[in-house]
Structures are given as structure tokens and as C-alpha cells.
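sorry for the late reply, my laptop died twice this morning and i had to redo everyting from scratch. anyway the thing you sent over, i finally got around to it. pasting the sequence first so we're on the same page, its 140 residues, then the predicted structure underneath. double check i copied it right bc i was rushing
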Amino acid sequence: MIVLHCIPSMLPRCAFIGLLAIGLPAGASAQKHAADSSAASPAVKEVPLTAAQRQTYVGLYTVSLPQGEQTTLRVYEDKGILMARPGNQDESRKLVYQGDNIFLTGGDPDFALVFVVENDRATKFTVRRADGMIEGVRTQ
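ok and here's the structure:
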């Protein structure tokens, strides 16, 4: 379970971190819940990536939130799996590849990171939300 403690001035940043956490099982009970709810929602596919393909996305991104706040997102590889760590948080989330430079952070298909890749390197990503667009630009 992720517990976020936010001061009012950091609410937009906390909202982004919370959105990354949606739909990801944190343990056996969450996995059981995910299996129980699978009949109600379409299955999330995971398209495999080669080591070279994973390196395309690895980097640090400066993220602009709809309210004008900024934070960071570090995308890194851990034992062959792409992970995302927002801001200075201790917990990371698995990025689930959907094909066409699109990743989910779990079971929420409405929170998809859509990367722009130029010369085999991701340069930015966007997330379209009802409350506005989240944009991340690669800085490293």
C-alpha cells in the first residue's frame, strides 16, 4: 500500500504519483483482487521488449502537470523490466509495454504513457487525462 503525505502546495505532484500507482498489485491480496476483476475489464497485454528496445526509454524526464507544477520521472531497467519512479519516491512501478511506444503503469488503460521516439531514443512522453495533459521531456 502506498501512503502519500502531501502538503497543499504539492497536491498536483502527489496526484501524479498517485496516478502512477493506480491498478498495480502490491501483494497477494491485490493479485487476487486483480484476478477477480479480470472478467469485468479487458485483459492488459504485455508486449515483450528486447534489451536494446528497453534502453530506448531509460532516462530522466521532467514532467509538467496540468496545473503547471513540475516533477520528475526516472525510467530505468531492473532485471529486464522497465520501471518508473516518480519524483523522490521510494517505490517504483512496472511499465507494461502495449506496443507502438505506449506503456501502462498497471490496470488503468486511461493512464497510458505515450512516448515519442527519435533515432532509437525516447525524447518525451504524454499522458492525456480528463483534467489535462501530462507531458514529460527527457533531460538525461
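The two ends are 30 Å apart (CA to CA).
thats about all i looked at so far, will dig more tmrw
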